[in-house]
Amino acid sequence: MPLETSQLEQQIAIRTIALAGNPNSGKTTLFNAFTKLRQKVGNYPGVTVEKKTGALVLAKDRVVNVIDLPGTYSLSVRSPDEQVARDVLLGRTPDTPKPDMVVCVVDAGNLERNLYLVSQIQDLGLPMIVALNMMDEVERQGRDIDIVKLSQRLGVPVVPIVANQNQGIEDLKRIIAEGVDAYYQRAWKMAPDLEDEMKQLVKLFLEHENMTPQEAFTEALAVLSQRTEFKGSEELLSKIGIVQDRLKAKGLRARTAAIEARYDWIKSVLKSCVKDKNKKGPNFTERLDAVLTHKLFGWIFFLGIMVLMFYMIFTIATYPMDWIDAGFSKLGEWVTAFLPSGDVRDLIVNGVIAGVGGVVIFLPQILILFFFISLLQDTGYMARAAFIMDRLMSKVGLHGKSFIPLLSSFACAIPGIMSARTIESPKDRLVTILVAPLMSCSARLPVYAIMIAVLMPMATAWQKAELMLLMYLIGIIGACGMAWVFKSTLLRSQKPVFIMELPPYRLPSWKTVAIHMWERSRLFLKRAGTVILAISIILWALMTYPKHESMEAGEALRLSFAGQMGTMLEPVIKPLGYDWRIGIGLIGSFAAREVFVSTMSIVFNLGDDAEENTLREAFQKASWPDGEPLFTPLVCLSLMMFYIFALQCVSTIAVVYRETNSWRWPLFQFVYMAILAYMAAFLVYQGGRLLGLS
Ligand SMILES: Nc1nc2c(ncn2[C@@H]2O[C@H](COP(=O)(O)OP(=O)(O)OP(=O)(O)O)[C@@H](O)[C@H]2O)c(=O)[nH]1
Ligand SMILES: [Mg+2]
């Protein structure tokens, strides 16, 4: 095909380009640079688990679709997220057109492994550009890559870029706009008799199926490797069977032969294009890893970083929290002065402002939590945490890879559960999904924080941080324990081999951290302004009606609808040390955990005649009818236990439904976690009383 016409065709044809590549090679970073979107990036493999689409403006009136794909090491699929990448590249995804061009994002620091995928994608026959990313690191390591030669050897344009610094992006866009020639000749070869059999198969596919030569080749290779069962006509299948039998008779193993042939070719390419200028001793990452993945120091560092995080949560966050608190009080006073007394004023002051304000006040703590989580993700420490956890996880029958979804669940179980898609074994994936909500998510933070403040008002921030750490550890231990239970009963399967790669440490990009914190606080505030607001209004109404004007405030609350519900629940929760007012909070928080705090703010604003005290003071004053204090240390502990273990989150249930495709698992999860929560709270409260504690 003459070059000019092919380029012309490309120019008209290109509508969709796909960003493919190994995990952690910078695809999403490039996607964000292309589309100005803010998809999540992180320095560990498996950040992106769904395909995402955006628009790339090439010229004034020329826009193409860009698809960001989950990372994959090869096209032989092992996990659900890799399946997405493969299906899109092969044009087998119903809602996505087959890409007209692939931009293969390659980590220049890991050329050998990355070029393996490049070679596989080339075999698909799609026009391709290699975006050689992370060139800054290559330079720092003193390596020299001959771009022109690499491009010649691969037979595709190679563009050096530094995606996170926007370098090379314009070059890349220019070459995309120009279009590339799809002409391709396979460079790697297997042993002659295997190649002959391959030719036979390709011929069969071309004769019997409506395929391009590249499709026929890909299919033939898959059939040769006996990876996929091809579905076709009887005649074709029997002919394929003959070839397969012949291979077996000759003792030829096409699968390993193909892998070896590819790597041989890659090695020869690298030999001619890459030069190490100065060989050095262990690099920065290796030296740091000697400590951070050390059997003992690794754990000390991990726990240390968590204590530090909670310490910050109890110290620097308190100042902005006081300001927010003061702001909402002022707002309440202002509305009280401005509006005539009555239900409307009551709704706004005691329902909306107390409810939403009660949650928004925790924004500074949430910000600090996300600051730390972003750091863990962006520096590459996340993968190390999974690595040290692997020793613990292997005891329960899972591998460290399962710990990444669990760590992400510290932020929120929803992204955590979704990232379980990187797990190959369906059973292990299910176990991970089932235990992920046991990790303490950010919605628990307000509950823990307020309970710890009531429990030990005089303690130092370090002591509070340690108790908070304990709550998080109980969650981790609970998750591991339940994983062990599931792995040894319902979901028995072999213990998988761990192949988590440890990315190099990278300085966090402050922009990424800031964006992450911003996105998360936006979500948090949005939740406060929608879900929490709506529930606050409903609960306010339930707590206000039917009205008993003449009665004292606490008594009127008890006779309200919500009060009646709480009273009905009281016999069930009394063994945990809770009264009907806490019962109202529990009911509300089955929609979302933070609702506990907002409901309690409303309960104690309504039920208490003195309005200006803080929630902590109200808790400390609250008592049983006989005058005994309600929030004793044991009750606080028991409540925290309940919140560690209970699945009080409608959104999580919905996501588990989506990820497992049935109601069975989310229901099962809800029930087992409820039982666990009740038992834990019961044991702490009753056990403590037996020991003579209060
Ligand atoms: N030094 C350096 N770091 C980069 C560059 N491009 C991306 N990164 C960092 O590399 C890490 C991985 O980036 P991502 O864009 O999340 O990688 P990905 O390919 O989308 O990864 P998955 O979604 O897990 O497959 C992040 O920490 C980025 O900040 C680069 O050119 N140089
Ligand atoms: Mg990504």
Report on the structure:
α6 (about 145-155) packs antiparallel against α11 (about 255-275), α14 (about 320-340) runs antiparallel to α15 and α21 (about 445-455) packs antiparallel against α29 (about 635-645). By secondary structure, the protein is an alpha/beta fold. The relative contact order is 0.07. It has helices at about 5-15, 25-35, 80-90, 110-125, 135-140, 145-155, 170-180, 190-210, 215-225, 235-250, 255-275, 285-290, 295-315, 320-340, 345-360, 365-380, 380-395, 405-410, 415-420, 425-435, 445-455, 460-490, 510-545, 555-560, 560-575, 580-590, 595-605, 615-620, 635-645, 650-660, 665-690, and strands at about 15-20, 50-60, 60-70, 100-105, 130-135, 145, 160, 275. The chain is elongated and about 95 Å long. Among the domains are: about 5-180, P-loop containing nucleotide triphosphate hydrolases (Rossmann fold, 3-Layer(aba) Sandwich); about 190-250, no CATH class; about 520-690, no CATH class. The strands form 2 sheets. The protein has a 6-stranded mixed beta sheet, sandwiched between helices. The chain has a two-stranded antiparallel sheet with strand order 6-8. The structure holds guanosine-5'-triphosphate and magnesium ion. The site of guanosine-5'-triphosphate (GTP) has 27 residues, from α2 and α5.
